[in-house]
Write a structure and sequence with these properties.
With about 150 residues, the protein is α+β, with helices and mostly antiparallel strands. The protein folds into two domains: about 1-105, Rossmann fold (3-Layer(aba) Sandwich); about 115-150. It is about 30% helix and about 20% strand. Strands 2-1-3-6 form a four-stranded mixed sheet. A two-stranded antiparallel ribbon has the order 4-5. Strand 4 and strand 5 (about 65) form a beta hairpin. It is elongated, with a radius of gyration of 26 Å. The termini are far apart.
Length: about 150
C-alpha cells in the first residue's frame, strides 16, 4: 500500500466540525508514472483561482461540495493534473527533505493574492480627510471661544 494523494477538503465539511478535512488516498496498484510521487490537492478555496471551478457552497452550518467540485477533484486525482494553487505532484525526495511533513500548503501555494492598492485614490482620500479635519478643528475653536475656554 502506497500513499497516492493527500487532499485537504473545505472546512466545515461536516456538521459541528470547523477544521478542514484531510483525506489520505492509499493505493496498492499505483500507476507507474506516479511511482515515487505523492499528489497534494488543496480544495479549501471556494472557487479555484486558475480554473474558476466552484468547489463548494456555503450553507448555514456546513459547507457542501458542488457536483462540479466533486467531478473536478476526482478528475484531478485520476489524471494527476497539476494546477497552481490547487494541486501538485511532489517527488518523495522533496517530502523527505521536509521531514515527511504532509501538510498540503507546504507543497501547494495557498497564499491569497494581495489586493492591489490604488495609491492615487488613497492620497486623494488622505487629502479629503485632512480638509475635513481642518474644518472640524475650526469649528471646535469657535465652540471653545463661544464657551469662553479660549
Amino acid at each position: 500500500m502506497k500513499l497516492d494523494s493527500v487532499v485537504i477538503a473545505p472546512q466545515k465539511g461536516a456538521v459541528n466540525t470547523s477544521p478542514p478535512g484531510c483525506i489520505l488516498i492509499l493505493n496498492k496498484d499505483k500507476p507507474e508514472e506516479r511511482e515515487g510521487k505523492v499528489q497534494f490537492i488543496y480544495a479549501e478555496d471556494q472557487t479555484l483561482r486558475e480554473s474558476e471551478v466552484q468547489m463548494f457552497e456555503e450553507l448555514s452550518n456546513q459547507n457542501k461540495l458542488t457536483d462540479e467540485g466533486v467531478e473536478y477533484l476526482a478528475e484531478t486525482f485520476l489524471t494527476g493534473r497539476e494546477e497552481d494553487h490547487h494541486s501538485r505532484l511532489v517527488d518523495l525526495e522533496e517530502i523527505e527533505e521536509n521531514d515527511w511533513n504532509l501538510n498540503v500548503p507546504r507543497y501547494v501555494n495557498t497564499t491569497k493574492p494581495e489586493e492591489p492598492i490604488d495609491v492615487s485614490a488613497k492620497l486623494r482620500e488622505l487629502d479629503r480627510l485632512a480638509q475635513e479635519r481642518q474644518k472640524t478643528d475650526a469649528e471646535l475653536q469657535e465652540y471653545m471661544e463661544v464657551l469662553e475656554y479660549r
